[in-house]
Write a structure and sequence with these properties.
The chain is mostly helical. The chain has a domain of 39 residues. The protein has 2 helices and no strands. This is DUF4167 domain-containing protein.
């Protein structure tokens, strides 16, 4: 079904809803910055365990479990198991 004044079979262009490209605005050949790591795996393990203890004391058992899972991840990273 076409609108008045448009030829039969005319289709308007589809809108572009995709995300812009990551390197848009960067000159060609510019490398992406490596992710910053704040502390070693052992330090991150200790930080997440501390956060888990704080969440447990605050009564938030869900947040405490989440923090323990992150701590386990960093423990495995420090041991080279992941």
């Amino acid at each position: 079904m076409s609108r008045p004044g448009q030829p039969p079979g005319f289709r308007p262009p589809r809108p572009q809803f995709s995300k812009p490209r990551q390197n848009a605005g960067q000159p060609h050949g510019t490398a992406r910055q490596p992710p910053r790591v704040n502390g070693s795996a052992q330090q991150k393990h200790a930080q997440w365990l501390t956060r888990a203890d704080e969440a447990e004391r605050a009564g938030d058992s869900v947040q405490a479990e989440l923090c323990r899972q992150y701590a386990e991840h960093w423990f495995r990273v420090s041991r080279g198991q992941e």
